[in-house]
Write a structure and sequence with these properties.
heterodimer; A: disordered C terminus; B: mainly alpha; 7 helices; disordered C terminus
Chain lengths: 495, 179
């Protein structure tokens, strides 16, 4: 455009479009403080004149002035603190330290782990609001700067964005670190629910932010979105696990949750994959849901076949049914993280559930349940022969997978030490995951041996020589507790 | 805490409506010395509040506040010298309808902005009051204390100056120090 030949009207329009600037918030606050003081002085002066005519007591004016001044300073302080909590007060803002101080004070007043979980998740929400403000705030400024600096095409990302993101992960991690301190199942569920509900809101906020961010910003938001969804899935699984334990009558629980920073590190390794996963999560959530439904149907069919359906089994079915209904509702609402969490938890529970047996068999099994006793063990009844149709469809690996062999009672009965190290008979099934590396390896080898023996398959000679990772993978593949690998192996086997 | 009298509330409303215009005007006038412009803006509005009782609410606020701003600035220039900063170091641009979306348009806008900043003081003031703030020639005349006809001529000359300077091949990267 050549200004020299530009008609006057167009030049005027250009001049009318000159950008306007605004004062810094700090200066505005200072202005308002001065304005209030001026207003007070003005009013005081007016009232003094009127009062002195009526009362004529100068010392009364002095006291009133002092009271106003004190109140004014206090009110300014409150206003400053109040303003500091605004999402526009981000890292680098002069009021940000006040914000951090206020949050530390709030945390100091939190009396128990549950309150601290609430506080940390609240702060995490604030970090996300700040992130939103950083993305939205001054986009034109960023563009103008990039234009001014030799017309570079690369986008300038505010370093405050990464710092705020790290702060967000830090707050969420701090919240989840409080959860293992809570041993009462009811409170543990409440704590997990607080995190879950907060993360649900965070996901919605991020989904709204995603289309508004710049191209590079979009990658960052997608990474956070996937990380939060993955973490929320883990939280939901843990919550259902704790609910189950609570209903089984357990008085104490030990909940450990993977930190969001660990998940973020995994997601960051492949940022393009993170974006792709985000885009495919609906598909993934649906697959997980269908798999959970299928697992439950198979279990129900088994109950029907064997005609063993005691009260416990009915309760269990109802419990999982309820979870699947919640998952279905979440699917219809587009809440895919929740769908994943509920579906995976339901699948795991269904896989691990032992159908109840008749009273006689229960009594005999209880007597022989403790390790180390040399009691004759009644041989298990052989499983019913599978139909021809099932034999064709079910791959070899699935024959190893039955609910019975994964129950803790059965494991304790048959498990023998592999390398001479005894396995504690008092350790509950779940806490065996926290055993030392050596015991864990022994346990895994024991489980694999049991599964293979129960199904009449030979134990590989090199089993004891396999690495820890190979043993873990082998066990999970056999027991179907990692359904992705299970499905992959299933397909491989079928083909 | 806050004086809830009608005059303070009314004044705050006027302040909120006009603070950007006044600040931008002063910013250009002091060669983009942000801190100075902020202090001057604050002083202008405080001065305006002190004399708010004398303001006729039936008349528009903008010419009144710009008159105060103009006079305050004249007093300031008589006592102190302004310092310059680069245009690109000025932060917190208000997102207004004037900001263009394409790179070419924003480059052009930036050039025009520099040209205006580079104008002689009176012409700069007239361009800002006339086009950025939409004041009439008559209102501007009252503010700066000149005849309306002279204002019209000066505005026209200012536009010519802008055109001529744009045609010049080299544009100054930084705004020269105010003398």
């Amino acid at each position: 455009m050549n200004l020299q030949n530009l008609p006057e009207q167009d030049l005027e329009k250009l001049l009318q479009a000159l950008p306007q600037y605004q004062m810094s918030k700090k200066k505005e606050l200072v202005f308002y403080a001065k304005l209030m003081k001026l207003a007070r002085d003005k009013k005081r002066l007016e009232q003094k004149d009127a009062r002195e005519e009526r009362i004529g007591l100068p010392f009364w004016n002095l006291r009133r002035t002092f009271a106003f001044a004190t109140f004014g300073i206090f009110a300014l302080f409150i206003a400053t603190v109040g303003f500091s909590l605004s999402p526009k007060v981000t890292r680098g803002h002069f009021l940000y330290q006040i914000k951090q101080t206020e949050e530390r004070a709030e945390l100091a007043f939190a009396r128990d782990p549950l309150s601290r979980v609430s506080a940390h998740m609240r702060f995490a929400g604030r970090r996300l609001s700040e992130l939103e403000a950083l993305f939205k705030g001054n986009p034109e400024l960023l563009r103008l700067i990039s234009v001014a600096k030799a017309h570079e095409k690369s986008e300038i990302i505010d370093p405050r964005i990464n710092e705020t993101l790290d702060d967000y992960y830090r707050e969420t991690s701090a919240a989840t670190k409080e959860i293992p301190k809570i041993q009462e199942p009811e409170k543990a569920v409440q704590a997990l629910e607080k995190v879950e509900i907060a993360q649900e809101k965070h996901v919605k906020k991020l989904e709204i932010l995603l289309p508004k961010a710049s191209a590079v910003g979009r990658m960052i938001v997608a990474e956070v979105l996937v990380t939060v969804e993955e973490h929320r899935t883990e939280i939901i699984e843990k919550k259902i696990e704790v609910i189950r334990k609570r209903e089984e009558g357990e008085k104490k629980v030990e909940v450990s949750v993977k930190s969001v920073e660990e998940i973020a590190a995994e997601v960051r390794k492949e940022p393009e994959a993170a974006l792709a996963r985000f885009e495919k999560r609906e598909e993934q959530a649906k697959e997980e849901f269908e798999h959970a439904k299928t697992s439950l149907e198979k279990l129900k069919q088994k109950f029907v076949k064997t005609e063993e359906k005691a009260e416990e089994a009915t309760k269990f079915e109802a419990f999982v049914d309820q979870r699947l209904k919640e998952a279905e509702k979440a699917l219809s609402e587009g809440n895919f993280g929740k769908v994943s969490g509920l579906s995976r938890a339901s699948t795991n529970m269904t896989n691990r559930f032992t159908p109840p047996e008749d009273e006689n068999r229960k009594e005999k099994k209880r007597d022989g349940a403790s390790l180390g006793k040399d009691e004759p063990i009644e041989p298990e009844a052989k499983p019913e022969p599978e139909t021809k149709e099932e034999k064709k469809i079910i791959p070899e690996v699935q024959r190893y997978y039955t609910p019975q062999v994964t129950s803790p009672q059965v494991f304790r009965k048959f498990l023998k030490p592999i390398d001479g190290q005894p396995i504690s008979k008092h350790a509950p099934y779940d806490s065996q995951r926290e055993l030392s590396e050596k015991n864990h390896r022994s346990l895994m080898i024991g489980k694999i041996t049991l599964i293979l023996q129960k199904n009449g398959k030979p134990v590989p000679e090199n089993l004891a020589k396999m690495s820890d990772a190979e043993i873990d993978t082998f066990f999970h593949t056999l027991s179907g507790t990692r359904y992705e690998k299970f499905e992959k192996n299933e397909k491989d086997m079928v083909e | 805490m806050v004086d809830t009298s009608k005059s303070v509330k009314d004044f705050v409303q006027y302040y909120e409506a006009h603070k950007k215009s006044v600040f931008t005007y002063l910013l250009y006038r002091v060669s983009f010395n942000r801190e100075l412009a902020e202090d001057l803006t604050s002083d202008v509005f405080l001065k305006a509040f002190e004399h708010f009782d004398s303001f006729d609410a039936l008349r528009p606020f903008k010419p009144w506040i710009f008159r105060i701003a103009h006079n305050h600035l004249v007093n300031y220039f008589m006592t102190k010298k302004a310092q310059t900063v680069a245009l690109e170091d000025v932060a917190e641009i208000s997102v207004e309808a004037g900001l263009q979306k394409t790179t070419d348009e924003s480059m052009l806008m930036e050039k025009v902005e520099k040209l205006v900043a580079d104008l002689p003081d009176l012409q700069k003031e007239l361009i800002l009051l006339r086009y950025q703030n939409g004041l009439s020639h008559k209102e501007i005349a009252e503010i700066v204390g000149k005849e309306e006809g002279a204002i019209r001529t000066s505005v026209s000359r200012a536009l010519d100056t802008i055109r001529q300077k744009f045609h010049g091949s080299q544009l100054p990267e930084k705004i020269p120090m105010e003398e």
